[in-house]
Amino acid sequence: MGSMSAVVVAVLCAFAMHAGLLVTTAQLDPTFYDDTCPDLYDTVFDVISNASLTDPRIGASLLRLHFHDCFVQGCDASVLLNSTDTIDSEQGAIGNINSIRGLDVVNDIKTAVEDSCPGTVSCADILAIAAEVGSVLGGGPSWDVLLGRRDSLNANLTLANQSLPSPFFTLDLLKASFAAQGLNTTDLVTLSGAHTFGRARCSVFNNRLSNFNNTGNPDPTLNTTYLAILSGICPQNATVVNITNLDLTTPDQFDNNYYSNLQQLNGLLQSDQELFSTPGADTVDLVNSFSSDQSVFFDNFIASIIKMGNIGVLTGTDGEIRTQCNFVNSENSGLLLAGVASNDSKEKLVAQSK
């Protein structure tokens, strides 16, 4: 990750690069496709519901994908773009490589939507709807998804490396990362609650298990019983890539147990536990409030994710409606002309989940 000073510089650079994206005057509308694609929500729901039968993680993965899209040049589906001669894919960023999932499911959704409403629905809007469906399938809140986004014509790998918050961040760095997107401390604590379901690799938390901050000791804010469990899952010098639940109590349920875990020092990631264990932090009261009342957490989550979904959106004639989420239309046309999009070669066009 580099030195802490380098991380601070990256966060500040991200803030500067995002300065023009924080506030959007675009008017997104939940009824945007009512006339042009009336069955859109049902189509998205059906594809994700079917995927969840074999992949219980998919809801969490799609919610994370929306988050990782919006934090890099706005909610424009740039995270979905594959590398080409002119595009360096954001999928290779530190916060994405070998970790973002659900790209194949998004492509399945796009195929189904194109069959019924060709050239109408943006990939950025599909990501926003998929995030809501992921929450609902996990037992979490539902909300009216604001729609009308258009898709970007480019991606920004450099910005992705600067903008995506790290699991190793302190609270100050987390706040700076969210502030760069126009999101406040309440949004930070609320959206972090999405870690109530899903999985994480050992590599994003094993720094806490034995030599935290080069002390030679485990992270003192990690419950010792939980430490023993995690050390068994992620032994030192392991050669296999293991994963574990972000929420050790209800790993596939979207609920408020994430915050109760923090109170018991059972947050998996450093960036999670920082919300409760940073001395004197203003985030502690929010954690306590969300832990004691799930409805309060759900109400705040709805407000924060709708707010996040408005970051830097493209509307009107900006951007485009991609016919395939992995490529801009001009690139996709070239591939089609070259005969690449035959049935035998479709897998080459699909960014598969890791």
TrEMBL record:
Localization, per the record, is: Secreted
Q: What is this protein called?
A: Peroxidase
The active site of this protein is located at H68
This chain's function reads: Removal of H(2)O(2), oxidation of toxic reductants, biosynthesis and degradation of lignin, suberization, auxin catabolism, response to environmental stresses such as wounding, pathogen attack and oxidative stress. These functions might be dependent on each isozyme/isoform in each plant tissue.
Main location (coarse class): secreted
Cofactor-binding details, from the entry: Binds 1 heme b (iron(II)-protoporphyrin IX) group per subunit. Binds 2 calcium ions per subunit.
- Give the family this protein belongs to, as stated in its UniProt record: Belongs to the peroxidase family. Classical plant (class III) peroxidase subfamily.
Q: Out of the domains of life, which is the source?
A: Eukaryota
Positions of the Plant heme peroxidase family profile domain: 27-329
- One of the record's GO cellular component terms: extracellular region
- Organism equals Sphenostylis stenocarpa
GO MF terms on file? heme binding; lactoperoxidase activity; metal ion binding
Residues annotated as binding substrate are P165
What EC number(s) would the UniProt record show?
1.11.1.7
Q: Is Heme found in the keyword set?
A: yes
